[in-house]
Amino acid sequence: MIISSEPLIASRGCGETCDHVFRGSGNESIDVIQGSEFDVMQTFDEARDNHDKYAVCHFKINPKRNITHEQMLQSVSMLAMEFGFDPDTCTIVRHRKAKAGEPDADEHYHLYASWRNSAGKCLDSSYMRVRQEKISRTCEVLFGHDIVKGRHQVAVIRQLRDEGKADIADYIEVHTPDLSEPVQSAFTAIQHQSALRQGVNLGKLRQSIRDLRITSESFSEMVEGLSALGVSIQKGEKANTYIIVNNENNKFLGSANRLFEMKKGEFANLFEALQQGKDTTFALSEGESPVNASEMTGEKILSPMPQVIPERTLLSSVPQLTTKGIPSGNGVSDIKADHFAMTDSMSREQKASIAFQNEEANRKASVEKETLANQQKFADDLLQMMSDFDKKWKHVPKEPFSDPASRNRVKVREKHESILKPLRTRYHVERQKWFNGSSTRKALQEFNNALKKLRYERDDFKALDILNNESDFLYCMNWMADFYVAGRERKLREWQTDNSVKSYLKAKKDFDELYGYIQKTGDVELLRNALKNPVYAFQQMRKTKDIEATMTAMNRVGIKPFQ
Question: Which domain of life does the protein's organism represent (predicted)?
Answer without folding.
Answer: Bacteria
